[in-house]
Design goal:
This protein has 259 residues and is mainly alpha-helical. The chain has eight helices and three strands; from the N terminus they run E-E-E-H-H-H-H-H-H-H-H.
Length: 259
């Protein structure tokens, strides 16, 4: 009886995604299925989440600027006239948003997208397990204050985890992640179709229905919710998704553009 890795080399188990095998009568029989690359997956997931957080913030930033410009135009009757500029501005916005949202559904192995992030977690749910979440509350700088109020780090962690993932769940299930993947696909589908058929390429068939600005908002809202959820599960922090500007970007509109 020899415990081997998938490669079948004797002398003890070796790391590998496929699990470990037991040799019986010269044949390898799988006895466990586990991700022995959990540490690598954890680092990858955290790195991807940081990038995705920035990308979703950029989406919201661009959307808010667009809406602010529409409000300025609506409030100034002198601007209520036909202009090719408005058509150009609209095309630029639609193209940029469609491609940015499409990027979040990319399955290319070279890409970092929300879809691939969810698939990574689906392949290793222990990355966001209850046990791992509890560990985030250990050695907290607020541990003494929490204890003084009659709570324990474990109790607070479990209460949060019950709300975020589900009561008595030790970790999300494969179905939980698949439900998020399905919803992400559903809320972005019409936008991605436009990007594929008219922006990234020019398909011989046109999209049956063009996406609305409301659909863009729904897609961004869902991406924001996913970022918030997984920032909580990985870091025990609830990030603000509010857009802040370091300068007055509207200042250029207070000066005549033509002189």
């Amino acid at each position: 009886m020899i415990l081997t890795s998938r490669a079948g080399s004797a002398g003890g188990p070796k790391p590998g995604r496929a699990g470990f095998y037991l040799e019986l009568g010269g044949r390898a029989h799988k006895i466990a299925s586990m991700s022995t690359n959990a540490a690598l997956d954890l680092r990858k997931a955290k790195r991807w989440l940081k990038i995705l957080h920035g990308q979703v913030l950029q989406l919201r930033h661009d959307q808010e600027i667009w809406h602010a410009i529409q409000t300025m135009i609506s409030a100034n009757s002198e601007l209520h006239r036909r202009s090719a500029f408005y058509g150009w501005l609209n095309n630029i916005y639609v193209s940029a948003m469609a491609m940015a949202i499409r990027r979040q559904t990319d399955t290319d192995t070279r890409s970092i997208s929300m879809l691939r992030f969810l698939k990574l977690l689906k392949g290793n749910p222990s990355l966001v397990s209850r046990q791992r979440y509890r560990a985030l509350f250990q050695r907290s700088p607020f541990e003494a204050e929490v204890a003084a109020m009659g709570f324990t780090p474990k109790g607070i962690a479990d209460q949060d985890y019950d709300r975020i993932v589900g009561k008595r769940k030790s970790q999300p299930t494969s179905d939980d992640f698949q439900a998020e993947i399905n919803r992400l696909t559903r809320v972005t589908n019409n936008i991605v179709r436009l990007a594929n058929k008219r922006i990234a390429h020019h398909d011989t068939t046109s999209p049956r229905r063009l996406p609305t600005f409301a659909e863009v908002s729904i897609a961004i809202d869902y991406l924001e919710n996913l970022v918030r959820k997984y920032k909580l599960l990985f870091e025990a922090v609830s990030p603000s998704m509010a857009v802040t500007h370091t300068d007055d970007w509207t200042a250029i509109f207070r000066s005549p553009w033509l002189k």
